[in-house]
Amino acid sequence: MEDGATAMTGAVEPPPRASRGKGRRLHGAIAHKIGTAILSGEYQPGDTLSSEVAFSEALDVSRGAYREAMQVLAAKGLVESRTKAGTRVLPRGRWNLLDPDVLAWAFAGEPDRQLIRSLFELRAIIEPGAARLAAERRTREDLKRMKDALAGMRRHTLGAAAGRAADHEFHEAILAATRNDALVTLTAGIGAAVSWTTVFKQRARALPRNPIPDHARVYDAIAAGDGPAASEAMRTLVNLALDDMQDSELLRDGGGLDRS
After folding, report:
1. What is the pLDDT of residues 18-29, one digit of tens each?
2. Phi, psi of 252 (to 5 degrees)
3. pTM of the prediction?
4. Residue 193 near residue 172, CB atoms below 8 Å
5. Tell me: the pLDDT tens digits for 223-254?
6. How far apart are CA 86 and CA 37, in angstroms?
7. HSE-up of residue 87 (Cα within 13 Å, Cβ side)
8. Interatomic CA distance for residues 32 and 17, integer angstroms
């Protein structure tokens, strides 16, 4: 990372200063601010950030806190720092878009069509297959976890944070019930994608319909041990969630997901 006191020629300027804090809170706030700027397109892939000194002075933070924030962003594939070359924003293909923090930064502003389309395509590929495996391998404990999550969704509704947390738990429980270690590694990302797209759908207006019965049909098929029915119920759930999203301003103008 560059240590010079002067910003590099052509380097992009820092965002407004981060709120003050200590330790993790401070470097987390810096990472959030810069990460949000990258995901919003304010900083483009290939852009070189201003120098460490320039950024830390502009944000009114220590250089140590700034370095820690850059390490967080580098670990998530957003930036790369090299001696004398400075810190540059990496190509989009390097970003860990399933990282819960990266998704939070993306949805802090207006997420682009490509990201939302990618998330729904991923869900349409992964979740129906996961539901099939869950129906074949679930335990009594898995079913209780799903049933409790479903009860939480009904009690709080998806319009409340507690209801969305229960929705997150429901999808996590299905992935866990697959007993497939590779699928389980996707748990945090899939759960975050479900949560943030649900929040996004409700920004302008309430949900157009109640999606909880769709979740109940998935649960019923898994509880019955019917893999094909569980897969189809989950596929329907994801497609209906996409239909809700299509009504949003973001996807309305011809940007919808092609399911053909």
Report:
1. 444 444 578 889
2. -70, -35
3. 0.79
4. no
5. 999 999 999 999 999 999 888 777 655 455 44
6. 18
7. 29
8. 12
